[in-house]
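Translate sequence into structure tokens.
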Amino acid sequence: MADQLVPAGLLEKADKILFVAHLALGDFTYMQNCFRAFAESYPHIRMHLWVDEVRRTSDASQWDHLSKYSLYDWVRSCGLFDKIYDRTYSPALYKQSILQAQQEQYPIVVSFAVLRRHLYAELARKLSPNGFVVGQKKRVRFLDIRKHLAYRKLDAHIPAYSTFDLNGRHISAIYAGWFEQLFGIAISEDRRFPYIDIPEEWQQRARDDLRRAGVREGARLVFLNAFSKSEERSWPLERMIELAQRMRERDEWKEAHFIINCVPEKLAQARRLFADGADGLHLFSADENFFQLPATLALCSLVVSVETAIMHLANAVHVPVIALMRQTSPEWVPIDAASSKVLSVKTRKGWVIEISVEDLLDEI
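Result follows.
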């Protein structure tokens, strides 16, 4: 690709590259394939990854939680990156990480940040004062001098995409398009399907945990997730419990066990709603390691989840999923249409709470 953003000659000479992103689990579910394609196309270039923590805070009481972000387990184990900057959750550690990156003298830095793009343009240049820097860029108002100056720090840019010009593209196609624009790498549709290499120790741990919970081997399992980071994408936990109870009234599900996902900060609330193990309902939280989650999902017959990474991880481990979604991010539907069902709210700005238990039972 003659007009790729990062010059071919520079890629031939470069020994390393730094990617900057405020990654979430859903992002990495699809970007992992892109990073793998880069490694295959440019095996002489070592990849480094800067995971920027957008929740960075001076509140020390939050650092322990932020330092254990489950994404770190996955990116460390995937074997693609020689160095990962994953200590950006406090201002002091953020500054230390910048100094470490500057010492690397990166010949190429690419920012995939889609929030506050101008600030990440400045960060990318700060990380590599003399390197070739690429970042996301959005249209700027004429008099917004700060952003104009920030974007001048880029040697090239990836145009921001809008939900209004998707033309049916999935997020995996958008990410693949970025790598084609940047590096001339064509990633075919079949190579965009997500994957997870789950270590055997966590597969065994998931089986052992279920056995200790009283779930017999071979029992039918349903994974239910009501939690998202944003309120408008979440569903009341009470409804998930009602859904499980209503499903158990049907002959085909009466012997099933229901694994109800819960974020750690909501465990106390969940325990008040039902007794763990009663009527085949079991609380679950991946509080030790990321791989607890996909290892458990892989044992299930069905996943029901609101719009969060779990619905994409279900596709990655080849388990049917019913996704409860808003209409605001159509590019983020589960990629496996054959084994996924999307249940959307009726209005564009509607919240997931508008979907009823009856709506879900009809789909199931």
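Note: The two ends are 46 Å apart (CA to CA).
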